[in-house]
Amino acid sequence: MKELWQLFGVFARLGAVTFGGGYAMLPILQREIVEKRNWATEDEVMDYYAIGQCTPGIISVNVSTFIGFKLKGILGGIIATLGFIAPSIVIIAIIATFISAFADAMVVKHAFAGIRVCVCVLIFNAVIKLGKGAVKDIVTGIVCALVFLAATFTPVSPIILVVLAGAAGAVSKAIGRRFAKDKGGKNA
Amino acid sequence: MILLQLFYEFFKIGLFAVGGGAATIPFLYSLSDATAWFSYTDLANMIAISESTPGAIGVNMSSYVGMTVAGIPGCIIATLGLVAPSIIVILVIAHFLKRFRDSRLVQDIFYGLRPASTGLIASACLGLAQISLLDVGALTSIYTLSNLFHWKEVVLALLIYMGIKKFNKHPIVYIGAAAAFGIIFQLAA
Question: What protein family does this chain belong to (chain A) (predicted)?
C-alpha cells in the first residue's frame, strides 16, 4: 500500500514538472526513475518509448503505465497513470475556471489572438519534424498527402483514415516483399 | 448522460490517436464538428493553454474540454476516458513485450500509420491557420489579396518561426512573446 502511494506520488511529480509530454518527459524520467530510484534501466525506458510511440494513446501516459506495471503489476500500471494525469486535471480545472472569468476582457482577447498564431506555428513546426521521420518513401508520401487532403476537404472521420492507413502500410509492405521474392529472393 | 458521452468520445480518441499530444488535435476538431461543445477558436485557446501548463498536451486537452463541457466531473471523466485505452493496451502488451516489438505485421501497420498521423496534424494546422492568419470571408466578398491575410498576424507567425529555428526555446517562451505582441499591436480578437 505504501509503495503504491509512493508510485502515485512520483508520477504525480513527473506530471507536474513535464511541459509538453512525450520526449519532454524523457530527461526527467532518466533522472527520477533510472538514476534516483533504479525502477527501470535506461534500455527499458527506451523500449517503453519505442512501444509507447506506436501504440494507441499519449506516449507519456503509455510509458507511465509500463513502468507502473513493471514495478507493481496491473494495479501499479493503473496507479502510475492516475498519478501522472492528476496534476493536469487539477491545474487545468483551476485555469479553465479562472480564464472564463477574464475571457471577455479586451487585453485577454488580444493576447489570445497572438497566442493562437504562435500555436499554429508550433504545430507547423511539429508537423515538419514528424514528417521527416514518417515520410520516407513514395508510399508514405502518398499516404500522408491523401490523409491530409481527405481530412481537409472531406468530413471523413480521422478514425477511418487511421485504420485505412494502417491497412495500406501492411498491404504495401506485403506486396513489396512478394515482389522482391519474385525478382529472385532478395530481402525486402 | 453527458459524462458518459464524454468518456466514450475521449476513449475513442485515446484509442485512435497514435503518438504524441498533437495527435489528439485532429480528433478534437472532428469532435467540435460533431457535438458543437466548443468552437475552433475555443480549441485554439485550449491548445495554447495546454502547451504552456505542466503535463502532457493530450492529457491537458482532455481535461480542458471535459471542464468546458461538464465542469469538474467532466474534467476528470474525459481524462480518464483518454487514458483508459492506454492502460488496457499497455497492460496487455507488457505481457507479450518481445513478440509485439518483433512482429513484422505490427511494424508494417505502423509504417502506414505514422505518415497518416502527420497528414492529420498538418490538416489541423491548416484549420488553425485559417482562424488565426486568414480572413476567409474576404475571399468571397472583396477580390483583393491584401484583405485575405491578417498581415500583423502573418508577420508574427514568421517572427515566431524564425525564433524557433534560431533559438529552439521552450514553447512557453514563444507563447508568452506572442501574447505580448497581441496586446501591444492589438491583434483582432
Answer: Belongs to the chromate ion transporter (CHR) (TC 2.A.51) family.
What's the structural domain count of chain B?
2
Q: What are phi and psi of A12, to 5 degrees?
A: -65, -40
- Tell me: do B121 and B179 sit in the same domain: no
Cβ–Cβ gap B112/A166 under 8 Å: yes
ipTM over 0.85: no
- Report phi then psi at A34, rounded to 5: -85, -55
Same domain, residue pair B22 and B61: yes
Residue in B164, B11, B16 with CA at minimum distance from that of residue B81: B11
Question: Which pairs from A131-135 meet CB under 8 Å and 24+ separation?
Answer: A131/B115, A131/B118, A131/B122, A133/B114, A134/B114, A134/B115, A134/B117, A134/B118, A135/B115, A135/B118
Q: What is the pLDDT along chain B (189 residues), one digit of tens a residue?
A: 899 999 999 999 999 887 667 788 889 989 998 998 999 888 888 888 888 888 888 999 999 999 999 999 999 999 999 999 999 999 998 888 767 767 888 888 888 888 888 898 898 888 888 878 876 555 555 555 566 678 889 999 999 999 999 988 877 788 899 999 999 998 875
Residue numbers in B near A61 (CB within 8 A):
56, 58-59, 82-83, 86
Q: Answer whether residue A187 is part of any domain.
A: no
Q: Does A58 touch chain B (CB under 8 A)?
A: yes
Inspect the interface and report whether the beta carbons of A165 and B115 lie closer than 8 Å: yes
A127 reaches B (C-beta below 8 A): yes
Q: How many domains does chain A have?
A: 1
